[in-house]
Specification:
The complex is a heterodimer of chains A (184) and B (124). Chain A has eight helices and no strands. Chain A has 184 residues and is mostly helical. In chain A, helix 1 runs antiparallel to helix 2, helix 5 packs across helix 8 and helix 7 crosses helix 8. Chain A is globular and about 60 Å long. In chain B, helix 1 packs across helix 3. The longest helix of chain B is centred in the middle third of the chain and has 45 residues. Classes of the chains: A mainly alpha (184), B mainly alpha (124). Chains A and B meet through helix 1, helix 2, helix 5, helix 6 and helix 8 of A and helix 1, helix 3 and helix 4 of B.
Chain lengths: 184, 124
């Protein structure tokens, strides 16, 4: 059965967060990620009337995000100007709203350290490896769906996901060892 | 112990993306290999950590996307209504003209004569 056409509100509510996280891992800059996420969502909402349900709405939307990002890479001059005048640099700025209800300072510090370890791993990954991680871990997309979103073979999805996970696990493991040594 | 299972197989096993024989092969190996069990668990934890570190789409971006998208949808709707109204007016004029020519031939000839006379006087 073909997926129903979502309303704009349903589209943003269901996929908005993953879209932003995907944009964040592709651009590695929170300001650029917000622009990319917004632009992709606007494109998708405007194209909803023509959505015929031939693919899952999420797969369709994530493909718009990836293609919009690839198009933005061509605007190298504007990116250079933005960086020249930007005070943010390339590092991720503080996330706007992390998924966490735990308000304790210890939990916040732990979350910040974990984010640093994740960022260190992400820096060693290629953009599509980061995208594959997000689509699999944050939205549970199948390998076939990921293959369609990124237009890469299924075997490539498997190998890149395995590599990305290993690097991430290694980075988090090193962080844990450091914490344990520090606490002794 | 010889590791027959590579990292890619472990990762695919985690996602249930191996065929039935592959899933069974990994399951059997895990029952005998604590190292691979530990590696599998570290891969699982890595995914969990990434999910825990995920962020929400900023509200301003959410609202801006909905506003811009709905504005475009409204503009398209208005455009369609204007086009329909214009088509109705043209149709009414055409039908009216045909009706006048058929039922009021005298009036039509007079109007035609007035237009021709005006055009002639402009040409002089």
């Amino acid at each position: 059965m073909a997926p129903d056409r979502p309303t704009p509100e349903e589209l943003v509510r269901r996929y908005g967060d993953v879209v932003f996280n995907l944009a964040l891992r592709l651009t590695r800059n929170s300001a650029d990620a917000e622009d990319l996420a917004q632009e992709a969502l606007i494109k998708a909402i405007r194209a909803l009337a023509g959505f015929r349900g031939e693919s899952d709405p999420g797969t369709w939307l994530y493909r718009i995000v990836v293609n919009t990002w690839k198009n933005s890479l061509r605007w190298k001059a504007s990116r250079f100007v933005r960086r020249f005048f930007s005070t943010e640099g390339d590092a991720l700025s503080e996330p706007a709203d992390v998924h966490s209800d735990d308000p304790t300072p210890e939990a916040a510090a732990e979350a910040a350290e974990r984010a640093q370890a994740i960022e260190a791993a992400m820096a060693r990954l290629e953009p599509d490896e980061r995208a594959i991680l997000v689509l699999r871990e944050l939205d549970g997309r199948s390998y076939e769906e990921i293959s369609r979103v990124l237009a890469i073979p299924l075997g490539t999805v498997k190998s890149r996901l395995a590599r990305a996970r290993s690097l991430l696990a290694e980075s988090l493991g090193r962080r844990q060892e450091f914490d344990e040594a520090r606490d002794r | 112990m010889k590791h027959e299972i590579d990292n890619e197989s472990l990762s695919s096993f985690l996602d249930g993306e191996l065929d039935a024989a592959g899933m069974e092969r990994v399951r059997v190996h895990l029952s005998e290999c604590p190292d691979c069990v530990g590696q599998l668990e570290s891969l699982r934890r890595a995914g969990g950590a990434l999910k825990a570190a995920s962020v929400r789409l900023p509200e301003r971006a959410r609202q801006a996307a909905l506003a811009a998208g709905n504005r475009q949808a409204s503009a398209s709707h208005r455009g369609r209504r204007v086009a329909l109204a214009l088509a109705a007016v043209i149709l009414a004029l055409l039908v009216g003209g045909i009706w006048a020519k058929h039922f009021l031939p005298g009036m039509f000839s007079q109007i035609h004569g007035m237009i021709s006379g005006a055009a002639s006087s402009l040409g002089q």
